[in-house]
């Protein structure tokens, strides 16, 4: 225990350095803005940061790894104060919420999460739904650092976290022991690792462990799907619904519903790590046969850690959770969440609008500058955010099939995505269109030049939202509406030549975790899987950067892709991870 300097007229504050394995800020150098400890709240934050291993830099210098600003200050004010035109890219800029969130979770959480943003600051690599691969460059979560072999994204994040390699490895090792001693997730995962676990299961587990946004394949299809409304954050909510099974009627029902709210909140605030911890705890608690009422009982449940166990006790004692109240109270956060669920809106637009004082969808319609797609997204906000009953998905698919067959009988349409996995409702309608023996050019011409206009004149297609390039595109995204209905649904056409049908069926069935696990497995076997096929003899350099495409092993037949990977066939409804 050390004491800080006695300050005139002030009480001596004690700094209690936490045990070494818990020093999550070890080797990190914090600069606080405003640069003083006269404000009691900031002073407290500085002390806590020191207790968890950070240094406090009184001057802005080369060693600073993080700038922590008070919430009311913005980026231009910081730059003016520092007399800089922009921040060095190695420095991570976050608001005051960041250190406390890290301490709450005993790890470095993702600093690019919306709740840590400083007004007016554009991340060096923009976070948008369109370029999710850029996000990990800002991610400093230790779990990523501990798995450097995971691929480009993970490697990038670890190298960018701290400028000096030693600092980084020290952090990783202290974080490793910290995680080993504290993190229930890691402990469980270790225990769950059985020797004869089959390859796919183990790849699925690894895919789940990896950052939800970390792409193990730079496939354009991946990026493209992520362009979708509320894309990835909904993935986890919807996954959960499927895997959750019987709903929450058991002894822990009330606790589960509160935890679920918090998990959803973290989904929306793009904090996949915390979201994952909550989901894991939820699924553990759901299986637990008796009511968990205390922190100690909670910690005995496989998959629940200290922090969540404490929250469970609080929920049982008070019927609610202070954390949730405070997250609910954060009005700006709520506004951002709402804006982020608009089709075609990324974090930049959402923040711009929130900063301009827009609060509601009406504000946006009346006062904000919107693209045509965003205007549609706002006007049909509820439509696009409502899941589509299975029977209605079928009606949309039938309408498209009829129209297409009227143009050419030989075409085949498959309904993909969550529908093919057997879901009772879907976020959108994913239709794969193919024709035996036809080239992609022929299919494209039929769909873009004939089918889309035909369905538009039938008033079934009501909006064209996005299309990959006219010349070589294979996707069309829009909205459809059934006769006698007013609800617009998101509909995607995916154009696939017969030779790639198997790989496309596999990819567009998903779910995304299953896809990631299959790609991971392929890559471990020296192969490469994408939505066009499975390839072998892919040359990669030491950084796993792809040097050659390799030779096609299988593209046409979905089952044969499983066989070639040495994985027993899994029907679509068993691909929910
Ligand atoms: N996909 C993927 N990775 C992503 C997004 C999508 O591998 N990040 C694949 C798997 C599912 C398929 O594309 C269709 O994508 P979505 O329509 O986004 O998902 P879904 O599973 O159909 O779920 P929803 O019911 O929400 O549409
Ligand atoms: Mg879908």
UniProtKB/TrEMBL annotation:
<comment type="function">
    <text>DNA polymerase that functions in several pathways of DNA repair. Involved in base excision repair (BER) responsible for repair of lesions that give rise to abasic (AP) sites in DNA. Also contributes to DNA double-strand break repair by non-homologous end joining and homologous recombination. Has both template-dependent and template-independent (terminal transferase) DNA polymerase activities. Has also a 5'-deoxyribose-5-phosphate lyase (dRP lyase) activity.</text>
</comment>
<dbReference type="InterPro" id="IPR037160">
    <property type="entry name" value="DNA_Pol_thumb_sf"/>
</dbReference>
<dbReference type="Pfam" id="PF14792">
    <property type="entry name" value="DNA_pol_B_palm"/>
</dbReference>
<keyword id="KW-0238">DNA-binding</keyword>
<feature type="compositionally biased region" description="Basic and acidic residues">
    <location>
        <begin position="190"/>
        <end position="211"/>
    </location>
</feature>
<keyword id="KW-0239">DNA-directed DNA polymerase</keyword>
<dbReference type="InterPro" id="IPR019843">
    <property type="entry name" value="DNA_pol-X_BS"/>
</dbReference>
<dbReference type="InterPro" id="IPR001357">
    <property type="entry name" value="BRCT_dom"/>
</dbReference>
<dbReference type="InterPro" id="IPR043519">
    <property type="entry name" value="NT_sf"/>
</dbReference>
<feature type="active site" description="Nucleophile; Schiff-base intermediate with DNA; for 5'-dRP lyase activity">
    <location>
        <position position="311"/>
    </location>
</feature>
<keyword id="KW-0548">Nucleotidyltransferase</keyword>
<dbReference type="Pfam" id="PF14716">
    <property type="entry name" value="HHH_8"/>
</dbReference>
<dbReference type="InterPro" id="IPR036420">
    <property type="entry name" value="BRCT_dom_sf"/>
</dbReference>
<dbReference type="GO" id="GO:0003887">
    <property type="term" value="F:DNA-directed DNA polymerase activity"/>
</dbReference>
<protein>
    <recommendedName>
        <fullName>DNA polymerase</fullName>
        <ecNumber>2.7.7.7</ecNumber>
    </recommendedName>
</protein>
<dbReference type="GO" id="GO:0006303">
    <property type="term" value="P:double-strand break repair via nonhomologous end joining"/>
</dbReference>
<keyword id="KW-0808">Transferase</keyword>
<feature type="domain" description="BRCT">
    <location>
        <begin position="20"/>
        <end position="116"/>
    </location>
</feature>
<dbReference type="Pfam" id="PF10391">
    <property type="entry name" value="DNA_pol_lambd_f"/>
</dbReference>
<feature type="region of interest" description="Disordered">
    <location>
        <begin position="184"/>
        <end position="235"/>
    </location>
</feature>
<dbReference type="InterPro" id="IPR028207">
    <property type="entry name" value="DNA_pol_B_palm_palm"/>
</dbReference>
<dbReference type="InterPro" id="IPR018944">
    <property type="entry name" value="DNA_pol_lambd_fingers_domain"/>
</dbReference>
<dbReference type="InterPro" id="IPR010996">
    <property type="entry name" value="HHH_MUS81"/>
</dbReference>
<dbReference type="Pfam" id="PF14791">
    <property type="entry name" value="DNA_pol_B_thumb"/>
</dbReference>
<keyword id="KW-0234">DNA repair</keyword>
<keyword id="KW-0479">Metal-binding</keyword>
<dbReference type="InterPro" id="IPR002054">
    <property type="entry name" value="DNA-dir_DNA_pol_X"/>
</dbReference>
<dbReference type="GO" id="GO:0006260">
    <property type="term" value="P:DNA replication"/>
</dbReference>
<keyword id="KW-0539">Nucleus</keyword>
<dbReference type="InterPro" id="IPR002008">
    <property type="entry name" value="DNA_pol_X_beta-like"/>
</dbReference>
<dbReference type="GO" id="GO:0005634">
    <property type="term" value="C:nucleus"/>
</dbReference>
<dbReference type="InterPro" id="IPR027421">
    <property type="entry name" value="DNA_pol_lamdba_lyase_dom_sf"/>
</dbReference>
<dbReference type="InterPro" id="IPR022312">
    <property type="entry name" value="DNA_pol_X"/>
</dbReference>
<keyword id="KW-0235">DNA replication</keyword>
<keyword id="KW-0227">DNA damage</keyword>
<dbReference type="GO" id="GO:0003677">
    <property type="term" value="F:DNA binding"/>
</dbReference>
<keyword id="KW-0237">DNA synthesis</keyword>
<dbReference type="GO" id="GO:0016829">
    <property type="term" value="F:lyase activity"/>
</dbReference>
<comment type="similarity">
    <text>Belongs to the DNA polymerase type-X family.</text>
</comment>
<dbReference type="InterPro" id="IPR029398">
    <property type="entry name" value="PolB_thumb"/>
</dbReference>
<keyword id="KW-0456">Lyase</keyword>
<dbReference type="GO" id="GO:0046872">
    <property type="term" value="F:metal ion binding"/>
</dbReference>
